Amino acid sequence: MTFNEFGLSQDLLRGLDELGFVSPTPIQQQSIPQALQSDRDLIALAQTGTGKTAAFSLPIVEQIDQNSHHPQAIILCPTRELCLQIHSDIQKFTRYLPRIQALAVYGGAPIHTQIRALERGVQIVVGTPGRVVDLIHRKKLKLQSIQWVVLDEADEMLNMGFKDDLDLILAETPSTKQTFLFSATMPRPIEEIAKKYMRNALRISVAKESTGADNIVHEYYMVHARDRYQALRRLADLHPTIYGIVFCRTKRETTEVADQLIQDHYSAEALHGDLSQMQRDDVMQRFRKKKIQLLVATDVAARGIDVNDLTHVINDQLPENIEAYVHRSGRTGRAGSSGHSFSIIHLKELGKIRAIERKLNKKFIQRSIPTGKDICEKQLLHLLEKVREAKPDAQIEPYLPVAYETFHAFDREALIKQFLSIEFNRFLEHYGNAPNINADTRSSFHDRMTGGTFRDEKIVPDRDRCAANTPEPLCAFIWRWALSNA
Question: Which of 31, 105, 155, 295 has the CA that lies 20 to 30 A from 75?
């Protein structure tokens, strides 16, 4: 199937063609015809990275009245980054539709600039709930002409406490509007919003809730909590070309980890909610240009990051729920490429890994944190490969006589040794006597059987493992107790 089959205008198709859009994704195949041909509301369950923005924005752009300068569509999303990403995508889609104007409204940017843009006239408003409510209260954003409302990542908006804002915004819109609700999950509060504000909604899903991509390898590394940062360093050093996101739970932990990495000479930056919009834009611009290898972020700050060629996601700490893990791991392995999701855990978090395995129906691979020797060998091979593939610039020729004169007394072996010492001493010094930081998985029976769990998730012990490590009478007692309390 191609986008030509949807009946979109030639100007819109021309913009899509220049963007490289040929075959629609599954969510686009189901959503776009429905939105174009019917006025029914739509509930779409889809994970991050499935092409949701085009799924809801293309039908809206196709049907916009270009002669009207009042807001006809409002798209609500949880974070500034996602707001800007959606706005940017719509601008690209409408490259050859100059009369269609879209505006991003979000906190952290001057509100008066956004007000002036609204006064000039826009058809599509993309905004975060807090800023949209502020503009409504100032009577600068009027929603009486709204024909389409999009709730993107609705579950995350509720998790961030925007329910009252959503209620206020939706109450301001006409009852005749068409509503598109896109969410990774459908918790009860989302169901309540759908029941209250949506009419005869059609529900579609491109995958089961909480599933992971097949081209992502999931691995976990077990260490003691005190060794978590050293484990992160070793994983980064074992993959010299790593380009990924390190996830932490809190802003404070994000800052601490990023500061440690920078201090230890890694190409890293933090991304969290305390950054100004200018700082955030600067970090993201450098990250997209690969001037930053490791972006250390919270789950909320990472919403809307759209980078297709990330090699790794590293969970410095596991998230609070399984859906958040799916969102994290889905940042890698995009656009048909393979990806890796690493989790650094301690002994009591093994139960969380088992819970994710059951929910995703995917087996995690337990790996050992590499030794200092492993890392030094990998870094040496990477360095030698870089040297071998380097293409000398002709401008270096005038400087070669000085180099030849300096090193004329060195034989081949001595020169290689000097070169490696300059480039490689940092790793040799750090990892020369590096200890084994892998946690002993043969810990107490209690640690293995009562591993940490996600909220509302109960773990039942494995009967065979129980029998293998416990006397039979005690095993039978524990097994009966576990089943009665599961």
Answer: 295
Q: In the structure, what pLDDT confidence band is assigned to residue 484 with cuts at 50, 70 and 90?
A: very low
DSSP string, 82-121: HHHHHHHHHHHHTTT-TT--EEEE-TTS-HHHHHHHHHH-
Residue 216 and residue 398: Cα distance in Å, rounded? Answer: 49
Residue 456 has pLDDT above 60, yes or no: no
Say if residues 380 and 242 touch (Cβ distance below 8 Å): no
User: Do 332 and 248 sit in the same domain of this protein?
Assistant: yes
Angle 148-151-154 from CA coordinates, rounded to 5°: 165
> 212: pLDDT confidence band, cut at 50, 70 and 90?
low
Note down the domain range covering 91: 3-205
* Residue 201 shares a structural domain with residue 305: no
* Cα distance between residue 390 and residue 403, in whole Å: 18
- Please give the biggest Cα pair distance in the chain: 86
- Convert the pLDDT of each residue in 25-61 to its tens digit: 889 999 999 999 999 999 998 776 678 899 999 999 9
Last residue of a domain, one of 337, 369, 401: 369
Q: For residue 408, what are the contacts with CB-CB under 8 A and spacing of at least 6?
A: none
Helix, coil or strand: residue 219: strand
CA-CA distance, 348 to 446, in Å (whole number)? 9
C-beta neighbour count of 143 within 10 angstroms: 21
